[in-house]
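stuck on this chain:
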Amino acid sequence: GGDLGMHIKRFGRFTEERVRFYMGQLALAIEHLHDHKIIHRDIKPDNILLDAKGNAVLADVGNPGYDPSCMCYEAYGSEAYMAPEMLAGNGYSFNVDIWALGVSAFEMRCG
């Protein structure tokens, strides 16, 4: 249980296999959101929960971006996980979630 941020703080870096396991589950969750034109905008280890079986669950979809035109302009989320285009304020789309997932994977692997 708990969130991945807590597990990283407590146990340090994860094995490559563990990171791949979580990334696969999270990629499917993000794909589902994007299929419904939803941009999470705040993916980070603290917003990834582990269930009783150790599966990753994407949480805190409290202020998603929804735009059928697939372009948002408001910066939202945790700055350390924001994609450059979000920080620049020139408009962004679904790719910001993939960027944040990559930053999260790096953090899981490196501690």
Residues 23 and 102 are 9 Å apart (CA to CA). The beta strands are 38-39, 48-50, 56-58, 65-66. The first strand starts at residue 38 and ends at 39. The radius of gyration is 14 Å.
